[in-house]
Amino acid sequence: MAVKFTYIRSYSELYEFINRRLKKLKPQLGEQFSSLMKRKLNYTYTTIHVELTRILKVLSELKSQRAFYIELYRVFTGENISVFENILKKSIKQLRSIYNDILCEIDKSKDRSHEAYVMRIGVARMLSIYRRINRRVLKLREFLSELAKMPDVRGDYVVVIAGLPQVGKSTLLSKLTNTKPEIGVYPFTTKTLIAGHINVEHYGKIVLLDSPGVLDSPIEEKNIIEYKTILALRYLADHMIYVFDFTENFYYTPREQFNVFFSLKSVLGDKPITVVLNKVDQLIREQINNTVKLIYEVTGLEPIPISALSGVNLDVVKKILVESFIKKTQH
Ligand SMILES: Nc1nc2c(ncn2[C@@H]2O[C@H](COP(=O)(O)OP(=O)(O)OP(=O)(O)O)[C@@H](O)[C@H]2O)c(=O)[nH]1
Ligand SMILES: [Mg+2]
Predict the structure, then answer these.
(1) CA of 88 to the centre of ligand 1 (A)
(2) Are strands 204-210 and 273-278 parallel, antiparallel or unpaired?
(3) Which of 42, 184, 229, 312 has CB atoms 3.0–4.6 Å from 307's, for a disulfide?
(4) pLDDT, tens only, 170-205
């Protein structure tokens, strides 16, 4: 998606840029003063017009992307893409009309000082159109830089690794693929989606997505970081690996982890889920057995006891993913 690398000027950048250029525009040989004023106005008009059109193009390209990006824009900015699009279209019309009015004013002017005054007013009025959309411009820029951090999620089978913060999702990705995500000891170490790949000979590529942790909180209170996981599950995932952590002194309780499990399951729909109980290197056999039983009773799914850190049962997890991918391609 080339759009994520498009540079869009903020109001203050555009203001600086235009004013710097206007100072450099000098009268040509024999040019009338009013003609110079008109050139300055035309320069301002054209530059703002180009910028507004560029933003419109970015938005229309975003609209042609997958639902995941369109929804992410909505969550990130708090409104649909078309709201900004309509504002831009209106701004372009206003810009044109201000430009035309000011040109008439110049024609009516009798002396240089009035021409210069009208020109300055015209520039300010045209720039103020851009100032009014600046808040949205800045938000869009932030959004594009978020997109630039996102991985390419194209693949034949997308598996999202989900769970509460700190359960070991990134460690699991790093052990199942060659990707080296950041692994930390504090919640929300992972702030965006991270991709790794498993090639399945003759079948294609599994994309494994490490995702930010999701807290046990109502959906309307979710922050944008958690939303990336939710939207990835809703729009990108073919499969979810849900990671539990029942070690003592863990940040989050079993109840919170079950609550998040059920809310993510409902976001995922009827796609397959693999449940893993991580960090079994920290549990004694009896704890593992009891926990496996408990998770099965609550979720109806038998968890695979694993240790992402020391590599216990990771081959089992990988095998399940590959089989489930192959099964999907055969349907
Ligand atoms: N003992 C043990 N520690 C583990 C295991 N897996 C992960 N950890 C540790 O748990 C902590 C969190 O690991 P991460 O992989 O960053 O967890 P995460 O779920 O990606 O965390 P967020 O990105 O914050 O959501 C790190 O200190 C890891 O070393 C495991 O199997 N055993
Ligand atoms: Mg992580």
Answers:
(1) 45
(2) unpaired
(3) 312
(4) 999 999 999 999 999 999 999 999 999 999 999 999
